[in-house]
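Worked problem 6 (solution included).
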Amino acid sequence: MKNGFTIIEFLIYIVILAMAITSINLISINIFHASARTNTIQEVAHNGRFVMHKIKEEIKNSTSIIYPETEGEELRLLSNDSLVVFKVSEDEKRFVVEKNNIPIYLTTSKVKIDSVKFKIISSDSIKVEIKISHKNDQNLPEQEFENLFISSFVLN
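Solution. The predicted structure is:
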């Protein structure tokens, strides 16, 4: 009786090992794509919620809505005798609030603002619609995501 493996036993071992390694690699790739997709969705959601929160806070602290008269892409509020402006920066497509002509970015560089609409509902309330998408410079499918945020706010 000889000790060792035959060539067929060795080939079967190699095939089983290759299948195991391939399975582990496929699972790892799927986990990576799912993680990237989750991060993309969370980034867009976080930016949208943060912008809506900041708009709500400024509207609650404002005395009047100056612009738009009916509907527009920019919101101007009068707050404590200072002008507060919400708009999208033309160069980077990021959401900006300007207080006393000092711009402050409200969104990260990982997202872009696709559209903004401020619509006056009544003299003291406004509807806000913001469409935000994830920047996808490499055209990766797991980074394709956009969300529409809609809310209404009332002056105090």
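Discussion: Helices lie at 7-60.
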